[in-house]
């Protein structure tokens, strides 16, 4: 009852249509959307502790492009402003003809590394990548925060990736920052953060 009252009081809690099943899920709510009006190196969602008693998981739905002077780009996903080397990342990548897998460990990773999930500036004009990133149990203080992601784009270079990662910290997540690793996120990139109830 209390949870329902809190949910209905949040003015930005807008339910959205699920593309995967074609109906209106009852447990997903829009928290905030950022649409870039110019190139920008980072995007941050703050004050997430306000939602710790309401949502069990968070989800980022992103359409973005990098200004990197190449056909692809990558990004870091950081929590609570932590740019230390206490993240791990893994990926499985396909391009239509070959499959590759790999990992990034704490020695060279300053965030969950979203490897080659964006089209770069020399890719087909106006092509944007699609990223769906699930942040599981971000408010639990008894476990490390775990991330899973599906990313991909099409153009002069095509990519699809399944990715996972972990922030080796049991702190409750209060902010999320996305950082374009090689350049800026391009103008018109869109970042939407959703809360997911149990």
Shape: globular
In the CATH hierarchy, what is the class? Mainly Beta
Order of H and E elements = HEEEEEEEEEEEE
> Which secondary-structure class do the elements indicate?
mainly beta
Cα-atom Rg, whole angstroms? 17 Å
Weakly predicted, low-confidence segments = 1-24
Q: How much β-strand is present in the residues? A: 35-45%
Q: Biggest sheet: strands side by side, in what order?
A: 1-12-3-8-9-10-5-6
The number of distinct helices, counting runs of at least 4 residues, comes to 1
Report a brief summary of the structure.
By secondary structure, the chain is mainly beta. Helices cover 4% and strands 44% of the residues.
Structure description:
The protein is mainly β and 198 residues long. It has one domain: Jelly Rolls. The chain contains one helix and twelve strands; from the N terminus they run αββββββββββββ. The protein has one helix at 2-9, and strands spanning 28-35, 42-45, 57-64, 72-79, 87-94, 99-104, 112-119, 129-136, 145-153, 159-167, 176-180, 190-196. It has an eight-stranded antiparallel sheet, with no helix packed on it. A four-stranded antiparallel sheet has the order 2-11-4-7, with no helix packed on it. The longest helix is centred in the N-terminal third of the chain and has 8 residues, at 2-9. It is globular and about 45 Å long. Mean pLDDT is 87; it is low at 1-24.
């Amino acid at each position: 009852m209390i949870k329902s009252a809190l949910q209905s009081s949040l003015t930005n809690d807008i339910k959205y249509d699920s593309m995967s099943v074609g109906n209106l899920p009852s447990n997903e709510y829009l928290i905030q959307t950022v649409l870039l009006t110019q190139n920008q190196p980072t995007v941050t969602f703050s004050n997430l502790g306000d939602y710790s008693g309401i949502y069990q998981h968070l989800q980022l739905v992103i359409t973005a492009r990098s200004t990197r002077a190449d056909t692809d780009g990558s990004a870091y996903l950081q929590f609570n402003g932590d740019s230390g080397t206490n993240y791990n990342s893994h990926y499985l990548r396909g391009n239509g003809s070959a499959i590759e897998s790999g990992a990034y460990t704490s020695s060279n990773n300053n965030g969950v590394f979203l490897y080659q999930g964006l089209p770069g500036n020399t890719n087909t004009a106006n092509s944007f990548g699609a990223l769906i990133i699930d942040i599981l149990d971000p408010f639990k203080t008894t476990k490390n925060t775990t991330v899973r992601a599906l990313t991909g784009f099409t153009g002069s270079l095509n990519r699809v990736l399944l990715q996972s990662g972990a922030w080796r910290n049991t702190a409750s997540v209060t902010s999320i920052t996305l950082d374009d690793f090689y350049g800026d996120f391009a103008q018109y990139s869109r970042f939407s953060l959703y809360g997911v109830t149990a």
